[in-house]
Amino acid sequence: QKCLDQNIISKSLFDKLEELYKERNKVIHRLIITDIRTEDILNLALEYQNVFDDVESIILSLEEKQTNLGVGVWGHNLMNVPDEYERQLLKSKIRDKHGRLPSSK
Q1: What contacts 8, CB < 8 A, 6 or more positions away?
Q2: Which ranges constitute the DSSP H helices of the chain?
Q3: Residues 62-69, mean pLDDT to the nearest whole number
Q4: Is the pTM of this model over 0.85?
């Protein structure tokens, strides 16, 4: 909500993330007692994958601004800013966490 209020993300991205969050909670907390099926879990995972690049791009932009302005996590601790190799390694680990899901984009 804070990102939407500060125009960091669009209303459409916010709405999509909000819906994914609600569905995620349904999956995590009420799988057994609701009508959700394993097929629904896969579809939810694919939807998360579809918004991942948009969210990642926004985060990278904010981190760069923090570094340039000397604020936030990276701006105050310039000695620990990850280099490009470390960023790519982290990105690879994050993508691997989601497995090899087919993209529906």
Answers
A1: 58, 62
A2: 2-5, 11-30, 38-69, 72-76, 84-97
A3: 83
A4: no
